[in-house]
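Troubleshooting log. The previous run stalled partway through. Resubmitting the same three chains, unchanged.
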Amino acid sequence: MTKIELTVDGAAVSDDVEPRMLLVQYLRETLGKTGTVIGCDTSNCGACTVHLDGTSVKSCNVLAVQANGRTVTTIEGLADTAQGGLHPVQESFRECHGLQCGFCTPGMIMQAVDLLAENPDPSEEEVRLGMEGNLCRCTGYHNIVKSVLHAAGQSAGGARA
Amino acid sequence: MTATQERPGGEVDQDAAEIGKDRRRKEDQRLITGRTRWTDNITLPGMLHLAMVRSPFAHATITSIDVDAARSAPNVVGVFTGRDFGDELGVCINAWPITPEQKTPAHSPMPADRVAFAGEVVAVVVARSAAEARDAAELVDVEYEEQPAVVGIKKALEDSVLAHPDLGTNKSALWVFDSGEAGTGGDVDAAIEEARTNGILIEREYRQQRLIPAFMEPRSVVVDPTGEQITMWSATQIPHILRFALAATTGVPESKIRVVAPDVGGGFGGKLQTTPEEWIAWAVARRLAKPVKYTETRSESLMAAHHGRDQVQTLTLAADRDGRVTGLKVHLDADLGAYIAIVGGGVPVLGAFMFNAIYKFPSYRFECQTVLTNTTFTDAYRGAGRPEATYAVERLMDELAAEVGVDPLEIRERNWITHEEFPFTTVAGLEYDSGNYEAATARAKEVFGYDALRAEQRERRERGDRVQLGIGVSTFTEMCGLAPSRVLGSLDYGAGGWEHASVRMLATGTVEIVTGASAHGQGHETAFSQIVADRLGVPFEDVEVLHGDTQVAHKGLDTYGSRSLVVGGEALVRAVDKVVEKARHLAAHVLEANADDLDYAGGRFTVRGTDQGVAIQELATAAFAAHDYPEDMEPSLDADATFDPVNFNYPHGTHLCAMEVDTETGAVKMRKYTCCDDIGTIINPLIVAGQVHGGLVQGIAQALWEEAVHDESGTLVSGSFVDYLLPTAADTISFDVVHTDQPSICTTNSLGTKGVGEAGTIASTPAVVNAVVDAVRHLGVSDIQMPCTPERVWRAIHAGDGDASTASDAMPHFEAGALNQDPTAGEGAGL
Amino acid sequence: MIPVKFDYLAPSSVEEALAALGEHGDEAKIMAGGQSLLPVLRMRLNAPEVVIDLGGIASLRGIRDESDAIVIGAMTTHHDVRDHALVREHALLLSKAAAEVADAQIRHRGTFGGALAHADPAGDLGAPALALGAQFVIAGPGGSRTVEATDFFVDLFETAIGDDEILVEVRVPKHTGWGAHYEKFVRVAHQWPIVAVAATVRGSIDEARVGLTNMGPTPLRATATEQALAGAPASEDGVRAAADLAAEGTDPPTDLNGAADYRRHLARVLTRRAVLAAAGAS
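Second attempt completed without errors. Output:
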């Protein structure tokens, strides 16, 4: 067991974990942050995407011990949802019907937030390329892409499409 | 981006009628904030975790299983093999034997003696944590004696190697429909002979490659045996059928079983199954009297959850010299895999009625030979039988057009049922109630810019451009809304096709509705709320939709086959109408008026010609208090309804696809995709568009990317997402999804709706392949096997008919990498 | 989905890491960004007893200017390599190739040195590193040594890094002002390249360097093509004959995505396209 201390969704947490424990397993099983999900075992699907020190990572591809001393943000900490608040990207996914079953959605939203942080006014092609690490089986991506462009338009006054 | 029918950012108009309003989904608030209940999220006190030990061999006898080391591993509570359970393990069922003579292999959830596909479970380890269960599973020592495996339809038909030696053959069943014998049409052989001498004969063999549904949420099951009812949570499309099957095969009374499908992350037919893993978890939980959980990995899912498609289609189309079809003869060989799954054998039969599509074929014969192989069992995948049929006929119509030398749309027009001809009884014996192929085609052509793209295609051909343009057409229809129970009975299916709904007015005036359909992404909570809000006149926000729990939704037949809205929605309408009638009676009493003098609108009864009235939500409170109600009524505003459809419904549409083909590399790229679907009344345009988009990409993926490949020994080569290629956002485009101004209303449900869940998938595959072939037809190409990989396209262009299949000696990229990671070598650095 | 148990060491210096490697030898596995290692551990296709994480060694991160070369720390992420001004100015080809590695999330974690040391023949960085004549600085118990790119890639997943050594940085000779293009051929975006070609050219065309991805067990240099390109005009016809030599001496695999002969064909076509793009002529 290895002791880790980190900040998750704004709260300081501390646990003894096995070194082999993946960050996604730590989030789900130890912290009960089940909003982040596991969709594959080869790091292709991106469903487990969270932010580690402010940039997107696949939390199945990070050991919990590697997050020691760092800051993790999950879909549950993106906005003050307990108070009914939504991040603009969350709002856009709802507005544009960017989800159906919703399983890929936390990862999609977390990656979209990262993408827009790096490129606030992306073209449709830039959105499509920027989301290439996230698989969805329901939406055909049409409305996911639209959601991201819509969110960009909301904050930057008009996405290039 | 193109968005013909979309209103991004549009506010919901509160005054508009509920039907047809693009309501934002009720479901989404939870899903976008991570407040979800996937089965794998469930944790119960004392819960134990399962790990499966799976056969690496496609066909082997089990010589011995030594579980001692696993049993003594840390925190292991038990290790079980097939021998440890008797009848309590139950069996996996086939609910649709397609002929009385069908050869059906015995299917144990965990066989004790012999495995028939790679990935079959031979032992289960139970431990206090999932990690410890996995660790101990590695210690289970199974000795196998490998047997020859049969892989692939052609090998199976030879019967030289048997998937199940005890059956004596790999041929499971032969199912035949002949229009001459059925009296629905003429003799197809006569039509073929006539065409051979005086007309056009198109003979083709098409292959429907094996696909994997690949829902994003891996399957998961939790069983809690600690109450009076044993509860199973499962990532399933079919909680009701699952409950029935558990009762029927494990000896537990149905009344003692509760099945819950909580949030379910996609299905596409892939979760229309009763699975070995569910049965094993059930048996272990009962044996240990403790809650257990099993969640598969993606690799397990790809190998052991059922696959789809996998047919070889031998087709003969007869036509006169003008391209008017005179007959179609179809012989299918369909690979069921190692076992006949719940409706596995029936999937190709669902296609039997659709090969004639939207056309007036005078004669038709369909034969389907199902075969068993040592591969993962196959079953429903989005469209189930109908995409295969649609692909075949829409590819053939393009070939016929090429033969006659006319535009593919022209050849279709010469053969399709005109809108004046509905209702129309087809050569397959179905009655199409409504449709308007002319209108859908005209609209699609206009939005697509058909003529301009044809002109560009000509120019590119003339210039000899490196990148050629092709235009693909698919004028599809399908039968959906499964299904009239009597029809299912006539096909020897093991259940009915009705659906159930309950409507309960609560004391405070809100409305609880219960549906037997079980959503897993379709948006029932929103669409059904709109139906109730419209019909009952209560606010959309006051309607709560409950589903997916057999203790809440006590009757139901679940969600598949584009049935929820057209069957379940109609049940809901009927239950609502019953509630209104009850309320009318109570309103008459309260208002001291004659019930016949009451008008009902906007959720309010009014006495005709007066301003006296009462809201139904007030009546709900009155019924709850029950202080004053008529002698001849019960004090409740609840009602149930069960709707059994009298017919399937027949959505249709015209899909147009433009593909660019790089003739130098064989790479293909979608340029434009337009579809005009006629699905009758639309309840929620936003949800409909989403269903179409998602369906399109699954169908496009069959055309271009996806293929489940087993090597000759029966090992799944495409066993992870590294090698089973799902498309990403970067591989797809935005689509034009439009509808006709005057939809063809379905006449067999009061909403007038037709199914939409499978439409995009059924239509798009042939549209894409037709476009790819069209782009290079002038180079001598008339077919490219799916998926149209760059290599296959390149070989078709440059080497005629060279087969690019390289599966037998292929190594998946992922394992190729891993195998070279010598675990004992301390390499300098990893990534 | 759950790796076999291992002990975890997080050294804070190269010396500590080498000491740990010396102590645990064959039982240890070095982890850089972990983006290829962790999937293998999750699938239990490898089971080291000790994982030595280089993530805590600050000196392995970063990119610096060193007269005729830029030096890229082994633990620099793909994301940082892609965007770094020094890389864009002096080794544009690496920036272009780094942009094509996997996806955004993986590029945030995966490292330049880790990818090269992993030596996946389908990896995106080997061919450009080879084309640019990179030098690999490898630290071991007896000190550091420098290995030329031509000697670094030994075989499938095998490099010149010894069992007791660690790749610490990569020196990339400056190709200031050279045009560059990385032409990657995939069926879907998240796939490993079926074939890719890394091309960088000076002028149009005075000099060219061409590397091939996934055309054999190691990254390959298309030397015959390079020689034929010297002095060739940057046009379709000017480049065609040289590009047609690109598959010479290659040994591509046959798998689900293509047979060897098809890959050779792709190598020729993609080389032409990559060179023209690098020369700004497409």
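Takeaways: The two ends of chain C are 45 Å apart (CA to CA). Chain C has three domains: 7-56, 58-173, 179-278.
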